[in-house]
Amino acid sequence: MHFRLDFSQLGVKIQDALGMLHIADDPSDPVYGEVERIFGELPQICDIRGDVVIYDHVEVILEEGKIRAGVFDIEPHRRICTYMRGVEKMAAFICTAGEKFTSITRQLNDSGDYLGGFIVDTFGSIVVEKAMDYIQERLQVDMQQAGLRITNRYSPGYCLWPLAGQKELFDLFPENKSGISLTESRLMIPMKSVSGIIGIGENVKKSRYKCDICNDVTCIYRNIK
Question: In angstroms, what CA-CA distances link 139 with 61, 127, 149, 221, 225?
């Protein structure tokens, strides 16, 4: 499945950034005005694309921290395999907010406007996560119609899944219509992109995310989401 989303579909609010930037929700604050200005430009900055591939034959090998999807193996760590126990299918996903977030952030930083660059960068993170929320909700509705449930989504770099696992994850996409690529160090281009997996089955569940299970202490969503 290939997705191309419009900014208006995401339900992004200016308050999403204010909380993450620790800025008061006060229009008289000059920094609020800068956030508001950039928020108004987001429909032109966004180029939101995503791909989801569903594998029907999935085996979770807990003792090896491995998941086998068709002829492919990924190794997301035993912790994630524990959360994926009972899955019958697996959805692999990639999604990007678009390249403009990176280029505009770089331009603003190069000009000395570090505040503007930070705000744009923050909105890029919000947009790609909201886009994946939208895609995950669509997947959940589709699976419910088939009598199935979904798990949380899990990504390389979180819950002890090494970032190097991006390579094996990207192998799961026979067609990459979103145009997302990997650097040699396994970072995604465009930078404001996410990837990962979602388990599907009759007896799986989606739980509230818990920051204490995540090993990334620098995550901007920590204790917020």
Answer: 24, 18, 9, 23, 20
pLDDT digits (tens, 9 = 90+) for 119-177: 999 999 999 999 999 999 999 999 999 999 999 999 999 889 999 999 999 999 987 78
With beta carbons less than 8 A apart as the criterion, state whether 81 and 65 touch: yes
Q: Report angle CA 198, 52, 163 to the nearest 5 degrees.
A: 60
**Alpha-carbon span 56 to 72, nearest angstrom:** 12
Where is 37: in which H helix or E strand? helix 30-45
Q: DSSP letter at 28?
A: T
Helix 114-145 vs helix 30-45: crossing angle, to nearest 10: 50
Q: How confident is the model at residue 49 (pLDDT cuts 50, 70, 90)?
A: very high
Q: At what angle do helices 100-110 and 30-45 cross, to 10 degrees?
A: 140
What are the residues facing 93 on neighbouring strands? 52, 196
